[in-house]
Amino acid sequence: MTGNLEDGERGGAAGPFLEVACDESGSDGENLTGGNTDVFAHAGVSLPVAAAAAAVREIRDRIRSPAEEYKANHLLREKHRAVLEWLLAPDGPVHGRARVHLMEKSFFVVDRTVGLLLDDPAAAVTLFRAGSRTFGEEGWRAFLETANRLLRVRHDGDPVDAFYGTVDVLRRNRPRTDAAQVLDRLAGTRARAVSYRAEFLAGPPLIPVLDPLLPAIVRTAAPWSGDGRPVRLVHDRQNMLTPDRIAWIEEAARRAGVGLAGLRLVVAREDARVQVADFLAGIARKIASDELNGRGDPALTALLRPYVDPASVWGDARSGALLAAPVAGRW
Fold this sequence. Notes:
Layout: E1 5-6, E2 17-25, E3 39-45, H1 49-63, H2 72-76, H3 81-88, E4 98-104, H4 105-117, H5 121-151, H6 159-173, H7 178-187, H8 190-198, H9 213-221, E5 231-236, H10 243-255, E6 260-266, H11 272-292, H12 298-304, H13 317-323
Parallel strand pairs: 2-5, 5-6
Antiparallel strand pairs: 1-2, 2-3, 3-4
Helix pairs in contact: 1-11, 4-5, 5-6, 5-7, 6-7, 9-10
């Protein structure tokens, strides 16, 4: 993968910075089971400013919408299919210069819940893949919703009782199944869940367990620093990205061996590189969601495939294979 090299502070590392512009699509905060989208996407684009500006101009010239600010939805309209294909094509402006990290939200909830309570990634995969088939759509939806409530920071009734009540009903209805065996183990973790919720009494945590943005940013930086060059991210402004959380991102990247040299916030409309990242994130989220729900467009899925981060957090085996995101990849 190639990218532009930008001169800047060295930060103790040899060679210039590689600057990568980022944006996201599908963020509903911690509301992962009742939000507007079922996929979260975070894109990183490494283009010179002039090349990104030229790509945005080309898109505007081809679409010719009077809108002041273009978004992914402009390119996703059927009448602009040719423009979308041009953007993603092997000879297009971003091929080899962009990556997108995908998160299947329902699996992210299961992964984080089982991770917190059992610390067993394999059990999360087992439960997720068998959950709907074993407990039915209604039962599985109840599990996802109560798990989401248990982990999110917001106080809403008694999420501990709601979660473990659902676990007990489901495991007794379908005993001795693979999914119920995972729930049997979860049933014995109430004390850990109570302790987790009790910590909120001191105030909301700096890093909410269920918010996908922060770990996605760390993961976005990872592929670009593989050759030892320090990476500096340029990201669209987000209320979530406070100075303390940016410091956490930088420390988490360091612990993961990612050469992240810093993160700078900008206004998206003032940086063409971030606009291109916004296009890619929105496009990727829609294509991935369509594939997840069995209405994928094979041509668009194939065009997206080279951009998908192999470590995307994805639990559905069928769509994961088509998107080339290894099933149950984890940050």
